[in-house]
Amino acid sequence: MLETGVPALDTVLVWGGALTLLVGVGTAAWRLVRAALRLGQRVDQFMDDWYGEEARPGVPGRPGVMERMGGIEDRLGRVEHELYPNSGGSLRDAVDLANERLARLCPDHPGPDGCPPLPDPTGE
Length: 124
Description:
Elements: H1 7-51, H2 65-83, H3 91-105
């Protein structure tokens, strides 16, 4: 080890180096602990969102992800019901009926869709 020849200065330099090392290690440890705490908070928030939260005074409850997915599947089933012909109550049945009636109204006019062109709404 190098020495300056002045024992008091040597002692100050050794303790200064030790203090610097301890502060550096302490800072690194603090950053790791802080990062772990933040990660823990995010995991806690994720778990609350995933499983939902019960209602508490002044705060309404929130359903979890799986409960929400079930609601989405129910709504998609209702939409899917409208896309296929059924007993006459679906949107698809209404469109088919409108096409049928339109075909009956203009059977003799040749055109790309079997009907004459619609009049221009601007009158030109």
